[in-house]
Amino acid sequence: MSAIFYHNTKQKLEAEESRNEQQKKMVQPILTQIKKADTFYDAEDYHQKYQLRKYHEILDCLNLSNEELITSPVAARLNGYLGGYGSAKAFEEECENLGLPHKVRSLVSRKLQNKL
Fold first, then answer.
1. Where does 7-114 show beta strands of DSSP type E?
2. Angle subtended by helix axes 88-98 and 73-82, to nearest 10
3. Model confidence pLDDT, tens digit, residues 5-38
4. Which candidate, 73, 23, 70, 21, places its Cα nearest to that of 43?
5. pTM reported for the whole predicted model
6. How many beta carbons lie within 10 A of that of residue 78, not counting itself?
7. pLDDT in the model for residue 45
């Protein structure tokens, strides 16, 4: 399930506005739910960074422990790109800031190019 959780009215309105703006750019409806935050439970480890976990060669190169994989901002960005949320061009522009090893950069670039 894709969801945005809010804590107050301002956050709810910002989430709805953002969703509505993005929807204008898309044909398919955005199914992300916007819900009031309640008790939060982390998903099981195998659900964390699900898209990235499909690419074992990239994971091996990152050499992150399971906890590091779950909390890593870099892993989160890669997970998004590999899940189809970002272009190959955007990835290349962001690579310097991610500090990726050359092999990871090359592997991810190749995967993104193949999705075109």
1. 33-36
2. 170
3. 999 999 999 999 999 999 999 999 999 999 999 9
4. 70
5. 0.69
6. 26
7. 85
Q: Which amino acid is at 88?
A: A
Q: Which amino acid, 16?
A: E
CB burial of residue 2 (10 Å; 0-12, 13-18, 19+): exposed
Are the C-beta atoms of 46 and 53 separated by less than 8 Å?
yes
Q: Tokens representing 79? A: 């997970």
User: For residue 47, what is the DSSP state?
Assistant: G
Tokens of 65: 């422990």
**Separation of alpha carbons 78 and 32, rounded Å:** 20
Residues 1-4: contacts with CB under 8 Å, at least 24 apart: 1/33, 2/31, 2/32, 2/33, 3/32, 3/33, 3/34, 3/35, 4/32, 4/33, 4/34, 4/35
Rounded-to-integer distance, Cα 110 and Cα 58, Å? 11
Query: Whose structure tokens read 């901002």?
Result: 73
